[in-house]
Each structure stands twice: as structure tokens, then as C-alpha cells.
Design brief:
The complex is a heterodimer of chains A (401) and B (236).
Chain A: H1 4-11, H2 13-51, E1 55-58, E2 72-73, H3 76-81, E3 86-101, E4 104-113, E5 129-130, E6 139-143, E7 153-156, E8 159-167, E9 178-182, H4 183-191, H5 195-207, H6 219-227, E10 232-233, E11 235-240, H7 246-257, E12 260-263, H8 264-275, H9 277-307, H10 310-318, H11 323-356, H12 365-392, H13 396-399
Parallel strand pairs in A: 4-9, 6-8
Antiparallel strand pairs in A: 1-11, 1-12, 2-10, 3-4, 3-11, 5-8, 6-9, 7-8
Chain B: E1 6-15, E2 22-32, E3 37-41, H1 48-55, E4 63-68, E5 71-75, H2 83-90, E6 91-94, H3 106-116, H4 121-134, H5 150-162, E7 168-172, H6 180-197, E8 200-204, E9 216-221, E10 224-229
Parallel strand pairs in B: 3-8, 3-9, 6-7, 7-8
Antiparallel strand pairs in B: 1-2, 1-4, 4-5, 9-10
The chains are: A alpha+beta (401), B alpha/beta (236).
């Protein structure tokens, strides 16, 4: 038996291809939306993986340092380093801000890392160009997605930094590229006020009789000095010695240091389950809407194509064609339309949307397989209205009268 | 039984019930022998279409008896379970407009019926080409319906009606869209095919050009048929 659907498609291939391309663009957007969600999850995991930490020690009762602000003293790491099972502990600060480079500014997550060497927690684990930070001040390593180049001069607050290294896939959970600078500079960037504000603060402190006592020389200078430094960091990244259980070490820190500690799994749960949960729900909603719109479009197209063939269907029924042959004709056309749409959509998502989209789009093969299955199911369901219309056609319509 | 072709006795068809009931067919008797072509003539509303649909197993009559070939297909109720198979294997249709399937070429339009009946594609196409040759449209075998003239389309439609060698062909005003010359050519072909394939052909028509060609004519008026001997004029 010949394929009636195939012959009809070949006969009006232009109509099918153009309709399929239109549907494909919609499917491409749908696949891209799924890719954006996967990209967000991957960004979050990359952030955790690249930090090189086993435990995140943060301010008590906060979800810091990524989901909430967290502030702990910058000497906390010393006491943590001495605890059983801790191999290393390193301060880190995170500050999302606009970094200026010449006439433009780029939204980045400025990360303050402790002095050390590659492999220290918080440091970028690898570079694609240049070198790591070797000086205590005014050097930066930037993610390549920021668009910065080696030798570029960046302005962060009042200070200027030279880009000495470039790294890749070092982004915040919201996809902002990271810029690494020395910890002391980062602490200053988080805290440092402008000169007018500093002058105002010093004047107010000097006019306060509680701090400016003639009987206590040196008090005013001490207070002003304490106001001019930032002794806080956002978190301490801890690496566990091999052979120790991270849960046990975390519990020990919680108990004795009265700080909040997150393991790798808990931090992933915070990032994926809380930080990007709203975005994930929005994307899921868009996916549902796009699926409904795609279904409606396929149903409308197939219904219109079927109505255009009512006379032929009546003739087919009159000459003895079985219902299942007519159902197959409509359903196969619907699925064929979906296949054309899926191929166009996959190409669109892979070659057009993913490279130019401002966020990381991760197109997983499994998502494509699920998407393909969903397209086939949607096309089959969408053809039901047209099939009902076709089955209602009276063969007597071919005779007339 | 001894019947061949088509034999109809006291066929009745009523639409609706009670006061609003309409007797579309009151008493139809008709016999058409194998190889014979008869005309069915009647004014609008006389019951022609109802009779054609009943003969074509598209609507169910209310009462009566219909024998197709040597099989009783209706006797106060359908005697055949699969009416689609009956239409496919035992009844050929030729319509006023050819109603060819626009996305199939000429060969496949004709070969579709045997394919639907389970005949292999190659065998069905072989039979189709043979029939197209007999109808002198073999040279258009690979053309699409939209590329054919009106006369060629009608010949292809006749080939489709004949391909399964049905004992009866129902032709609903097959010459209406054609000029005199082509109309007479179609009637000639139908007569030739009826003889060649031993098929009984009933042609519903209003076409004054072709009425004189029938040897027997059934008139239908108010749901009742009347037989008349026709002129049986030569086509030349």
C-alpha cells in the first residue's frame, strides 16, 4: 500500500516545509528555553566546582554567600584551619557589580581571593591565557565571557586593575562572569566610601564627645582607624583532609564555632532549589505555554489541511478506504510536520540561538530526545480534531444530490 | 437464484418518521444485465440520488431487496457486514466531476482500489496501466490529475471505477461537464467497457445528448421507477 500521507506531502511540499519551518522556530525557542534552564543549573554547579571547596562556612543562620549576604571576621579561617579534618581554609568575598573598562561597563561578580597559588580554594582552577595573580594588589583574572582581554585596565571603585589572566566557565549562578582580584582589594571595594563620605564620617566621629575625650589620648585615632578597615569576608572555603567525612567536619564547626556550614550537596540544593527556583518555574511556565501554542498551531494547520481534503476523503470512503487508512493519512502528516519542525527547531536552537543568547544555553542530548518525544505526542494529539472531522465525513458527499 | 448484474425489487426508502416522514423511494424495481448500460432519468427531487446512494450502499433502504452479481446484499436489511468492502469490490463509481485524488498520479489513482483490497503495489499498477491503455490514456500514466484535460480525467475516473472488475458501475452524470463530442466518447467507452468486463452500468443523467444512446431507460418520478425502451442510437 502506498503512503497517502507521503504522496500528499510531496505534492504540496512547499506548504509543508514553510509551515514546518514556522513551527520549527517555535520548537527552537522551546528547546532553547530548556537549554537556558540547563545552563543555569550548570552555571550553579560550575560555581561550586570551580570554588574548589568541600565546605562553605558562613554567617550563622544565613544562606550565604551566594543566596544571601554573609559576613564573618576575616581571621575566622585561622581557627577553622586548626580543626580536625580541615586540610585548608581560605577567605573569599563575592560582590556583584558593574566593572568599568574604558567607556563600557560589564556586570560581573568580583571575587576576592586569598594570596596563595593555583589550587587554593576560591582561585580559578585553570586559565586559558595569561597567568594567575602574583601581586598583592591591582591585578585581576577575568572570565573570558566578560569580554575583557589581557592587559585591559579595569576600574573597580576607585582603583584600577590590570587583567593578567583569562579563565573560562567561571560565572555566578546568574551567569555573570567572574573577575578575581586580591582579597584585600576586594574587602576595600566592598567597604570603601568616597572621600567626601570619609571626611564627613571622621568629622562626625571627632565631634562625638564619647570618642574624643581629652583624658584618653589616642582613642579618637583608634576609632577612626577601626572605621577605615573592613575586617569581614563573606565566607571561608574549607577543604577536607582525605579520609574525613565532610558532614562530620561540618557538624564539628557548627557546634564549636557557632557558624553555619554547608556541604557541597547542601550548597547545590540552595543554588538550584532556592536561588534559581523562581527562574526555573518561569521557564517551566514558558515551556508549558510554548507547548500549548505549538499544539494549537499544529492542530489548526492539520485541521485546515484536512478540511481542504474533505471531498477527497469522501471519495476515499466511498470507494472503500478503511477508517484506519484515513486516520493514518492525517496522523502521519501531523507527525511529519512535527518532524520537519523538530529538525528546524534543533538546528535553530543549536546554531542560531545558543551562540548568540546572552546566557549560557546548555542543550543536553537527553532534552532533545524528550523534546522529540513531546513533539511526536503533541502532533498525534493535535491531529485528533482533524481525524474526528475526517471520520464524520459522509461518503454520500462524493455522490452529491 | 440465476441473477447477474443488478436486480432490485420493491426498494423503499423513508426519511424521518411520523407526520414529517418523507417517502423518497416508494417502489423501485430495476434489473440491469451484465454488459448492459441503462439510463436513469428523473427531475430534481424524484429520488435519483437516494436510489444511487442506496445502490451504492451509502445509505440503508427501508425495505426491499437488492442482488448484486449473485449475492443478496439487501433483503429488508443489509446482508453484508462490511459495506466498505462491498463498495470497494463490487461497486464502481463514476462521478459528475472526476474527483481524482490530486496528490496521486494517474496510475496510482487507478491502482489505489486494488491496493486497498490488499493487491500488491506492482500488480495493482500493472492492472491500472492495462486499463489505462484500454481507455487510451496510457500516455498520461505518470501525469498528475491537474495536468489532464476534462475528458482525460473522466476516462481515468472510469478506469478507477472498473479496476476491481465490479459487477455494477454507478455513474452520476458523468458527461455533465463535457461537450457533445467528449460526452459521446465517454458513453462509448462505458458501453465498450460494460461489454468487455461484463459489467452492469447505471448512468444517472439529464444530458439530452446522451439519452438517445440508451437501449433501456428507467424514469423515476416521486420515488417510483418506470421502464422505457430507448432509441439505442449509434454513437457515430
Amino acid at each position: 500500500m502506498i503512503s497517502l500521507a507521503g504522496r500528499d506531502i510531496m505534492h504540496a511540499w512547499g506548504k509543508f516545509v514553510f509551515t514546518g519551518v514556522g513551527l520549527g522556530l517555535l520548537i527552537g525557542v522551546t528547546l532553547s528555553m530548556a537549554g537556558i534552564y540547563r545552563g543555569m543549573v550548570d552555571d550553579a554547579k560550575a560555581l561550586l566546582d570551580n570554588s574548589g571547596a568541600d565546605l562553605w562556612v558562613v554567617q550563622q543562620d544565613t544562606l550565604g554567600p551566594y543566596a544571601e549576604s554573609s559576613s564573618i571576621y576575616d581571621d575566622t579561617w585561622r581557627s577553622l584551619r586548626g580543626m580536625p579534618g580541615v586540610a585548608s581554609a581560605a577567605n573569599v568575598t563575592y560582590l556583584t557589580m558593574q566593572v568599568r573598562q574604558g567607556e563600557r561597563d560589564v556586570r560581573t561578580m568580583v571575587t576576592g581571593v586569598t594570596p596563595g597559588a593555583a589550587g587554593t580554594s576560591g582561585w580559578p582552577p585553570y586559565l586559558v591565557a595569561g597567568r594567575q595573580i602574583t601581586r598583592g594588589h591591582y591585578e585581576a583574572v577575568a572570565d573570558i565571557a566578560s569580554g575583557f582581554k589581557l592587559g585591559d585596565t579595569l576600574q573597580i571603585r576607585r582603583n584600577y586593575y590590570t587583567v593578567v589572566g583569562l579563565t573560562r566557565r567561571m560565572v555566578s549562578s546568574s551567569g555573570d562572569p567572574m573577575v578575581f582580584i586580591p582579597l584585600k582589594d576586594a574587602q576595600e571595594a566592598q567597604f570603601l566610601k568616597d572621600n567626601d563620605a570619609i571626611h564627613q564620617q571622621r568629622r562626625r566621629t571627632a565631634e562625638n564627645p564619647a570618642f574624643n575625650r581629652p583624658q584618653v589620648p589616642g582613642l579618637l585615632d583608634a576609632v577612626i582607624a577601626s572605621q577605615s578597615i573592613n575586617p569581614y569576608v563573606n565566607a571561608v572555603l574549607v577543604q577536607i583532609e582525605s579520609g574525613h567525612n565532610s558532614e562530620v567536619v561540618a557538624e564539628s564547626i557548627r557546634r564549636w564555632k557557632r557558624l553555619t556550614v554547608y556541604t557541597r550537596n547542601q550548597m547545590e540544593e540552595i543554588l538550584v532549589g532556592k536561588l534559581i527556583a523562581t527562574s526555573a518555574r518561569q521557564i517551566a511556565m514558558f515551556l508549558v505555554i510554548l507547548s500549548i501554542v505549538s499544539s494549537a498551531i499544529v492542530a489548526f494547520i492539520i485541521y485546515t489541511l484536512t478540511l481542504g481534503k474533505i471531498r477527497e476523503i469522501a471519495v476515499l470512503k466511498l470507494i472503500g478506504t478503511k477508517n484506519r487508512t484515513i486516520i493514518a493519512l492525517i496522523m502521519q502528516q501531523s507527525v511529519a510536520l512535527g518532524l520537519i519542525g523538530f529538525v528546524v527547531g534543533k538546528i535553530t536552537a543549536t546554531l542560531l540561538m545558543a551562540p548568540i543568547f546572552p546566557k549560557y544555553v546548555l542543550l543536553e542530548p537527553l532534552d532533545s530526545v524528550i523534546g522529540f518525544g513531546a513533539v511526536v505526542v503533541i502532533c498525534i494529539l493535535s491531529s485528533i480534531i482533524a481525524i474526528r472531522a475526517a471520520l464524520k465525513v459522509d461518503p454520500a458527499e462524493a455522490i452529491g444530490g | 437464484m440465476g441473477y447477474k448484474g443488478i436486480h432490485i425489487e420493491s426498494l423503499k426508502k423513508r426519511y424521518g418518521s411520523g407526520d414529517t416522514a418523507v417517502e423518497a423511494l416508494k417502489n423501485v424495481d430495476m434489473q440491469v444485465a451484465p454488459g448492459e448500460v441503462v439510463g436513469l432519468i428523473g427531475p430534481s427531487g424524484s429520488g435519483k440520488s437516494t436510489l444511487l446512494k442506496s445502490l451504492g450502499a451509502v445509505i440503508e433502504p427501508t425495505a426491499g431487496r437488492m442482488i448484486l452479481g449473485d449475492e443478496v446484499i439487501y433483503d429488508d436489511g443489509w446482508k453484508v457486514k462490511d459495506l466498505r468492502a462491498l463498495r470497494r469490490d463490487k461497486i464502481g463509481f463514476v462521478f459528475q466531476a472526476p474527483y481524482l485524488i490530486p496528490f496521486l498520479d494517474v496510475t496510482d489513482n487507478v491502482a489505489l482500489l486494488p491496493m486497498l483490497a490488499g493487491v500488491s503495489n506492482s500488480e495493482a499498477r500493472k492492472r491500472a496501466v492495462k486499463l489505462l491503455k484500454a481507455l487510451d490514456v496510457e500516455h498520461r500514466a505518470k501525469a498528475m490529475p491537474s495536468q489532464l484535460s476534462g475528458g482525460e480525467q473522466q476516462r481515468v475516473a472510469i478506469a478507477r471505477g472498473l479496476i476491481n472488475r465490479p459487477p455494477v458501475i454507478l455513474a452520476d452524470e458523468p458527461t455533465a461537464p463535457l461537450d457533445s463530442e467528449r460526452a459521446l466518447a465517454v458513453i462509448r467507452i462505458l458501453n465498450d467497457m460494460a461489454r468487455q468486463y461484463e459489467t452492469a452500468i447505471i448512468i444517472v443523467t439529464h444530458d439530452e445528448k446522451i439519452i438517445p444512446t440508451f437501449k433501456r431507460i428507467y424514469h423515476i418520478r416521486d420515488g417510483v421507477t418506470y421502464e422505457e425502451v430507448g432509441e439505442g442510437r449509434n454513437f457515430t
